[in-house]
Structures are given as structure tokens and as C-alpha cells.
Amino acid sequence: MKKITTFLLACLTIATILSFTSCATKREKDALRTAQRFIDTFAISEQKIMEDLENLGYSYEEIEYAMDKCDVDWYDEAVEAAENLLESSTNLTEDQIIAWLELAGFTSSEAEYAAEEVLE
């Protein structure tokens, strides 16, 4: 009985390790690198990155992998985009900032948060 328990525990441990090991394809890894490069270079929304990756020929699965693995806070990206907007356009109202951010692909929640942050 002890050998069976030990064997089952070993199998469970191996299965757990394998579940955490990425079996990403080369294209998935490329999509992730490209998405991360966009994030590092621009204040960009998740929607915009997904559109850009699609335009570059990545599949839905590759884009989904990249978005799941990206190291990003979309609220921070929205704040950065709002700050950039205010550098080029002064005297904008909160509603104008929100509308611009939503047009840029940020969610309503992200846009509202960013507008409040930059106008404090």
C-alpha cells in the first residue's frame, strides 16, 4: 500500500510540475515578445495590442496566449496614455479624456480611472 501511495504522490507531483511548464509554440512566444515590446514602447490598450497582433498575422490562440502572459497593468497603461494626451492637448475635460481613451481601446473602467488620476 505504501508503494502505491508513494507512486501516486510522485505522479501527482510530476503532473503539477508539467502543468506549470509552458509548452508554448514558437509563434506564441513571438506573439508574447511582440506584445511586450508594444507595452514597453507605447501607452497602449489591450484591445489595440490584440488588433495589432492580428494584423501581424497571429492566430487567435497565439494572441490569447500573449495576452494571458503579458506582464502589464492596463490601468497604468491608461494613466500613461492620459498623461501623454495632456502633454499634447491642454485644457481637456475629464469627459474628453475618457472619450479619447475609450477610442484608443481602453475599457470604460480603465479610462475613468486614468482621467481621475491625471486630473487630481
Description of the structure:
With 120 residues, the chain is mainly α. The chain folds into two domains: 25-71, Arc Repressor Mutant, subunit A (Orthogonal Bundle); 73-120. The protein has seven helices and no strands. It has helices at residues 2-20, 26-41, 46-55, 60-69, 74-88, 94-103, 108-118. Helix 3 (46-55) runs antiparallel to helix 4 and helix 5 (74-88) crosses helix 7. The radius of gyration is 21 Å and the shape is elongated. Mean pLDDT is 87; it is low at 8-21.
- Separation of termini? 66 Å
* Proportion of helical residues: over 70%
Give start-end ranges of low-pLDDT stretches.
Answer: 8-21
Rg for CA atoms: 21 Å
Secondary structure category: mainly alpha
Helix-strand string: HHHHHHH
By DSSP (H or I, 4+ residues per run), the number of helices equals: 7
Give the beta-strand count: 0
Largest sheet: none
Which percent band covers the strand fraction? under 5%
Total count of domains: 2
Mean pLDDT: 87
Coarse morphology: elongated
Describe the structure using short key phrases.
elongated, Arc Repressor Mutant, subunit A, 0% strand, single chain, mainly alpha, 120 residues, 2 domains, 76% helix
Q: What's the layout of helices and strands?
A:
Elements: H1 2-20, H2 26-41, H3 46-55, H4 60-69, H5 74-88, H6 94-103, H7 108-118
Short description:
By secondary structure, the protein is an all-alpha fold. Helices cover 76% and strands 0% of the residues.
